[in-house]
Amino acid sequence: MHQALILVASKCQVVTKFRNTLGLPGRVSVRLQPNHPTDDAKGIGASILDGLMYGCGDAVIGINPATDSVDGVKRLLSSIDELIQRFEIPTQSCVLAHVTTQLKAMEQGAPIDIVFQSIAGTEAANDSFGIGLAVLEEANQAALALNRGPVGNHVMYFETGQGSCLSAQAHHGIDQQTLEARAYGVVRKFNPFLVNSVVGFIGPEYLYDGKQITRAGLGDHFCGKLLGLPMGCDVCYTNHAEADQDDMDNLLTLLGVAGCNFFMGVPGADDIMLNYQSASFHDAHYLRQVLNKKPAPEFEAWLKGMQIIDENNLLLPVDARHPLLIAK
Fold first, then answer.
1. If 0-12 CB within 10 Å is exposed, 13-18 middle and 19+ buried, where does residue 73 land?
2. What digits encode the pLDDT tens for the residues 74-114?
3. Is the dihedral of CA 202, 207, 211, 214 positive or negative?
4. Nearest to 24 by CA among 233, 298, 284, 311
5. Cβ(8)–Cβ(231) under 8 Å?
């Protein structure tokens, strides 16, 4: 069964564009995820620099905020935007607050590139998230009106994950994989830039062990690609699940072979704000080497220009005099 899920998905290329181009053949991208438990600017900045030095961040620099305040979202967005503009980094920013918070931030002039929202596969579950089709369309139109993407106009980022409907008691007796596919049917209406399954995040109550997480990750990617979505995956698990980092290495590699558009990059694979285990910056570098894949083309050119990678896409040694490291 895994062979079929991998082979079919590998034949489905979905390309999206904003400040760079994702999903091209021979490419795999990374969301740089610099979360911090108090949204500390220095901690977030250190994680962003660490990720960029590993060639990560072409999918998006995306922060899960510790709080859902409009002022906090604006501050985080402004800091990432300043970095992107100062060093002319061909990537996009996102702060993964509730969509209504992001709308308020846009109304107050926040530099929003990509709008985020978690969604589920039933109306009742989405009601529990405080969302519906109308507010998602409002956010989509608001972000399009900002016209911040020089390469393309895909402006939405959706996260899903098996078990969300069940945990909200909104599954109506339907299995998790079917409801996950229903969520993909919703998000394709909005022509998103990124979609990913946070496959093992909810915990063993929904996906018990590494074997179940592996099957779910391959199945989610397969279903999303068949529906024409730019699928990525947060290859992850919680510490109380019967899984470990070897399971994640296996799933990361299998999804890389399957043509997954992007993965997460977390410092040390340990998200200290969300308290779960994911993929690290060096995991992404491993995957690109073993599968002979490159970052998004615009981002690859920037990495070479900044002397972060060489012509063979291998990391170059850097010292304290590197422009990114001496920036104030």
1. buried
2. 999 999 999 999 999 999 999 999 999 999 999 999 999 99
3. negative
4. 298
5. no
Which stretches within the chain are classed as H helix? 2-10, 41-53, 70-86, 99-107, 123-129, 133-146, 164-167, 176-187, 210-226, 245-257, 281-290, 297-305, 323-326
Question: Would you kindly state where each structural domain of the chain is located, as residue ranges?
Answer: 2-310
Q: What is the mean pLDDT of residues 10-39?
A: 98
- Give the CATH superfamily of 2-310: Aldolase class I (3.20.20.70)
- State residue 81 phi and psi, 5-degree precision: -60, -40
- Cβ pair 113, 157 in contact under 8 A: no
pLDDT at residue 328 tops 80: no
Q: What is the pLDDT of residues 184-232, one digit of tens each?
A: 999 999 999 999 999 999 989 899 999 999 999 999 999 999 999 999 9
- % of the chain surpassing 90 pLDDT: 95
Burial class (CB in 10 A: 0-12, 13-18, 19+), 303: buried
